[in-house]
Amino acid sequence: MLTRFLFWALLIYLAYRIIKALVLGPSRQAPPSQVQGKPKNRPLDLSGQDVEDAKFEEIKENTKDCK
Predict the structure, then answer these.
(1) Which candidate, 51, 17, 46, places its Cα nearest to that of 9?
(2) How far is CA 62 from CA 23, 56, 57, 58, in A?
(3) Half-sphere exposure of 27 (CA within 13 A, CB side)
């Protein structure tokens, strides 16, 4: 009895979703958003002269001090 009820409930739900999709169609989708105005941040215009390599130093670890 319960399985019949769940079957019919699922069937009605799926029919509702299909009819809703057919009736409303793609017109109910969210409209594409448009951005207006100027961006706050200016784009970076970097050349090879503006970029510098980082210098790293090897750190020696003492395994005796680690607990």
Answers:
(1) 17
(2) 72, 19, 16, 13
(3) 5
At 28, which amino acid appears? R
Buried/exposed 47-56: b ≥16 CB within 10 Å, e otherwise = eeeeeeeeee
d(CA 22, CA 28): 11
CA atoms of 15 and 3, how far apart (whole Å): 18
pLDDT of residue 21: 81
pLDDT at 4 over 90: yes
